[in-house]
TrEMBL record:
It comes from the Eukaryota. InterPro entries: CALHM (IPR029569). This is CAHM6 protein. The chain crosses the membrane at residues 20-39, 51-70, 178-195. It comes from Toxostoma redivivum (California thrasher).
Length: 308
């Protein structure tokens, strides 16, 4: 039992890393299936288009899916095009939204970059695309370009080729794997630098940041539970009113303005030290105090806690 509890605690403490690792492993497994089962290079003039489509199109689709499943994307966009919001833009708020969009994009890039890195290490997609590239033909076929290009198109299919052209297959694979390793190294370097920079610029200390993460997680869990309970009670009241032909009992539910107040993206302000918009709403007389403003006011501070 203790072992199970330790395993659960470990998963909770490292859920972000484990989440990214799971996404990366699933993406790598999907790439392996595509490269071994689905991908069949035509070995003709369509090599480049076919190879690039398998290298880039799934990565683009994964990027779009990552945007779609990230709740912060919809928190950032929902209601922003309504009539009331059309004339409420400011440079500070625009900067905050841009920073949030960059953070969402950074997370959304995990799956597509994993796809591209694994695909480049496997070399099948790159080899097919490069064998049909005019740049590759110019680089490898300097003398007899026509025959060499025809032979080069057959490289991904493993045809029996002359020794000098057969060596080019190894060159194409080597190029793909080198690009793959450079991409992985660049991703890890940028991730490390951005993490160091974000912690260096943190508006709170290490332990307060840990507390903030715990608070945000618990607030989200309680909000989900309370929202389900509240929605269930409201649905029961309205359904009973319909079927029993009775007048509905008084029932308080948050107003549209209240929902709007807690739906802004919050950036930590050291002068206020609220941990979320709900915290700020509760601490300012349900948002009626003059202290309550839309979103965080310290636009230079970075937001470190990820809301679900």
């Amino acid at each position: 039992m203790n072992t199970l509890r330790k395993a659960v605690d470990f998963c909770i403490r490292h859920q972000k890393v484990l989440g990214y690792s799971t996404v990366s492993l699933l993406t790598a497994a999907m790439e392996y299936i595509f490269s071994t089962v689905v991908f069949k290079c035509p070995c003709n003039s369509g090599n480049m288009l076919y190879g690039l489509s398998f290298l880039l199109a799934p990565a683009f689709i994964l990027l779009l899916l990552s945007y779609m499943v990230n709740a912060r994307t919809w928190l950032l966009l929902t209601g922003k095009c309504s009539h009331e919001k059309q004339f409420q833009c400011s440079s500070g708020r625009g900067c905050t939204h841009l920073c949030q969009l960059l953070r969402i994009t950074a997370k959304a890039l995990v799956a597509p970059l994993t796809w591209m890195a694994v695909a480049l290490l496997g070399a099948d997609f790159y080899e097919c695309a490069a064998s049909g590239s005019s740049l590759t033909v110019h680089f490898f076929c300097k003398d007899n370009a026509t025959d060499c290009q025809t032979q080069l198109l057959q490289v991904p299919c493993g045809k029996e080729l002359p020794a000098d052209i057969a060596q080019e297959r190894l060159s194409l694979k080597a190029q793909s794997q080198l690009v793959g390793w450079f991409l992985i190294a660049a991703i890890m370097t940028i991730a490390l630098i951005s993490t160091c920079f974000s912690h260096c610029c943190s508006p709170v200390s290490y332990f307060q940041l840990k507390f903030w993460k715990i608070y945000s997680k618990k607030e989200h869990e309680i909000f989900e539970t309370k929202a389900k309970e509240h929605a269930t009670k409201l649905a029961e009241r309205n359904t009973n009113c319909f079927f029993e032909d009775t007048d509905p009992a008084p029932f308080h539910t948050p107003s549209r303005e209240d929902w709007q107040k807690i739906s802004f993206l919050y950036t930590f302000n050291p002068q206020e030290q609220y941990y979320s918009m709900i915290h700020k709403y509760a601490s300012t007389n349900r948002g009626k105090s003059t202290e309550f403003k839309e979103g965080g006011q310290d636009y230079t501070a970075l937001e470190f806690v990820d809301e679900a």
